[in-house]
Design goal:
This protein has 188 residues and is an alpha/beta fold. The chain has eight helices and six strands. A hairpin with a 7-residue loop joins β2 and β3. The protein starts with a strand and ends with a helix. The model has no long low-confidence stretch (mean pLDDT 93).
């Protein structure tokens, strides 16, 4: 059983990323369940997607402390959901910082040392500037697929398998940018 969570804020492409993962696992002959939980997603609020794949999956929900992998599109979201990983699980996250409304209004402060806070958990972390990788590929909107590129090393499978799924899932006019973002993320 593979338990994955994708976390971010509205508009970052977590739903496309979850569809790519779902198609990948289906192509491997696995039973897959997806569940999307939206906060104020259209207003920049948290979005969480659960993906479970295995021989038989009864529920799409991933319990706290049971995730094998968390893919976070933003640094604070990585810290917010790190507790969901099992001991030894892996967190792949973008070091990009998106200020939530309480920080913007001055009601809260953005954590100063997220990598230091993440080091307190018994997990593996892979943090990189996925936004910069996506921009290098040609579009900031490909940040989600750059993160999948990095996560592909944990999930497994060769680049050709992943590229085939991306080609069949991403609209044709965005395929080349997303394939480049995936390759840059996979190098991380």
């Amino acid at each position: 059983m593979m338990n994955i969570m994708i976390v971010g804020v509205g508009g970052q492409g977590s739903l496309l990323a979850s569809r790519i993962l779902g198609q990948l696992f289906i192509s491997r002959g696995l039973d897959v369940k997806l569940s999307e939980v939206h906060g104020m997603s259209q207003r920049g609020g948290s979005v969480v997607t659960y993906i479970r794949a295995g021989e038989r999956v009864d529920s799409p929900m991933v319990e706290d402390g049971k995730a094998d992998l968390v893919i976070s599109f933003e640094a604070l979201e990585a810290l917010r959901y790190a507790h969901c990983l099992k001991k030894g699980g892996t967190l792949v996250y973008s070091t990009q910082e998106i200020m939530p409304m309480p920080v913007i209004t001055g009601a809260a402060a953005y954590p100063a040392d997220i990598p230091g806070e993440l080091a307190k958990f018994d997990i593996e972390t892979v943090g990189f500037d996925a936004l910069a990788a996506a921009e290098e590929a040609g579009s900031a909107k490909a940040c989600n697929v750059a993160l999948l590129g990095a996560a592909s090393k944990i999930i497994g499978g060769d680049a050709a398998e992943w590229e085939g799924i991306i080609r069949s899932t991403v609209p044709a006019k965005f395929t080349d940018v997303n394939l480049q973002a995936f390759a840059l993320g996979r190098e991380m």
